[in-house]
Design goal:
This protein is mainly β. Helices cover about 0% and strands about 50% of the residues. The strands form six sheets. Strands 9, 10, 13, 15 and 17 form a five-stranded mixed sheet that branches. Strands 1, 4, 7 and 8 form a four-stranded mixed sheet that branches. It has a four-stranded antiparallel sheet with strand order 3-2-5-6, with no helix packed on it. β2 and β3 form a beta hairpin. It starts with about 35 loop residues before the first strand and ends with a strand.
Length: about 280
Amino acid sequence: MADVKQDLLGLEYSASFEISGLQEANIDLSLSPTTGTQGTVYGVVTDGTNPIPDATVKLFDSQGQPFQHTMTDADGAYSLDGVPAGSYTVSAVKTGYLLSDAAGVTLSGGDTLQANLRCTAEASLALGTIAGVVKVSKLGTETPLSGVKVTLMNALGVAVASTYTVDDGEFAFYDLADGVYSVLASAEGYQAAAPMAATILRGSIVNMILVMTVDTRTYNGTVSGVIRDHNGNAVAGCFVGLFQMVGGVETLVATTKTNTAGKYLFGGVTGGQYLVKAKLEA
């Protein structure tokens, strides 16, 4: 059998360059020796008893940064070759299993070190997940909506879980058994989106987008206050006008009168700029 060839000097490369016409280029390279400087980390990934095929094995450098990865074979074995001298950790994971504890390895030169890994099966990782985003539709544009209550209901229409969307409108329900679910979003000032159905089968993942619209009946503000005379006394029965400012023009949009405590209140005030005026006639 012929000897397996190995690199004596490592591969190096130049910067890109251009040749034009009769121009001549001179490119010098300096190659570094590689013999004996790279090692191998190998081992077997098991559940404590049986080998785990198709597990992902990843090597991290001393700073915890990903360096190299591979997959285990049918016997749960793996091999990471061409690893430079240094300190590393190696871990393994597979769907349905927890990430293994990290094994530390230190290579000096062309070492070959064994690091067997154990992954523990986790039943909850075989369960399903429903994740999504709640958005609000305004003038044809959809934007994420935070603070929305999202309720998960089972096939009988019974609420089994609830959560609230975060700043980017995201929500998630996990550890879900197989079955048919529906998801409902609700928030004050918005019309609830119709429930969206989701089916979990064999631990599947379902992604969805729920779109809400502004409820013009409730998506508005109020303006209130107290009217007093020059002595600080509350003025009852005082006329109060609410004016909307558009382009510097005042338009009276609502009127009311104060109660016996001098208070007034305007409801259903839509977005905009306003001012309040008040007077009392004899």
